[in-house]
Amino acid sequence: MDGVEERYDAHARERLVAEPPKRVDAPERLPFERDRARVVHAASFRRLAAKTQVVGPQSDDFVRNRLTHSLEVAQIARDLSRALGTHADITETAALAHDLGHPPFGHNGERALHGLAAECGGFEGNAQTLRLLVRLESKTVDADGRSVGLNLTRATLDACTKYPWPAAEAPAAGGVHADGVPVAGSKFGVYADDAPAFAWLRTGAPRHRRCVEAQVMDLADDVAYSVHDVEDGTVAGKIDLTRIDTAAVWETVRAWYAPDASDDALDAALARLRAVGSWPTAPYDGGRAGLAALKNVTSDLIGRFCGAAQQATFAAADGPFVRYAADLVVPEATRAEITVLKGLAAHYVMQDERRVAIQERQRELLAELVGFVHGRPDVLEASFAADWAEAANDAARLRVVIDQVASLTDASAEAWHRTYLRG
Hints:
Helices cover 56% and strands 0% of the residues. It has 18 helices and no strands. It has helices at 10-13, 31-40, 43-47, 66-84, 88-97, 106-116, 125-136, 154-159, 195-201, 212-235, 246-256, 263-274, 288-316, 332-350, 353-375, 382-390, 394-407, 410-422. The longest helix has 29 residues, at 288-316.
């Protein structure tokens, strides 16, 4: 790692539960490499393959699901991290883990569960990710026999924390998610009963400030979302990059993402994107040459956005770009270009009336499932049944039900509903 490992001290490498050395015949792996392996082998990571990204994973072999999206975010995060001199294993692990807490049906399911979980503190995908990493995933137990999840290092857990504050300290809610679903509540990163683990991982961290590794992960997510949604929309025949109704798209941009953006600023951002040498000059035709051209513009845009952030970050500070020693800097022009791409996907793909109707039914399905499971705890999977037995009150029992339903994939949520509510 060219000395990068030495930039992270014993405090950064500490685990909540100390672990003995591995057997001498095992391949030598450094602490942050072990963290990455633990996420890759986690059950919640595998389940991302069957969870919605923008459209359901069963709808088409080509469209991205939460797993493929996470792998793409991880690749972007790793490349940018190496360019900055940040530990690539930490940022890659954070990127691989960033969507673990998503319930069935993506942000739409998150919106539904947030309302259903009001009596136990709400539901937030990022807080659920932390809950999985420090509690629900099975890898390590403490001296009292209680799960501490994957027992990741402090630096890795901190990098996974996109919103380093509880609900009570969260900024006011507003806007929409990148897939167009309205934000149901304030964005926060920890539930009340996971506060002890959160306090441990944030020991020594500036209040409410994200470490630079988390900032890299967040930008990689934004870049992947914006570029790949446009790619998927183009292949699906919904977006033609040679024919853009800017007046309509800019209205969507202002309604969804940037209410103060002017036509002039958005026009300028689009002009810069069109000036990228690989930007298509002919409509996508579905052939191999057309797909290759589309892949080229995808690659060029990712490189453009990450390169701009790298240059701006180097210009702003000398580094090292480790934990809280510096911040990632993303130029406003770059953010505007990313927003334009989000607007294209939002206008041409996500406002489809059929998709809106499907989302309404998904929320109804989850509400019915939560109600059923709450009244029939005997259907809980073994690990959640144990949590139910230990729950001290109604709010804690509701949280167990929410954990169970959130763990389901799109397909298994449908199957549970068919089995228990239609059978």
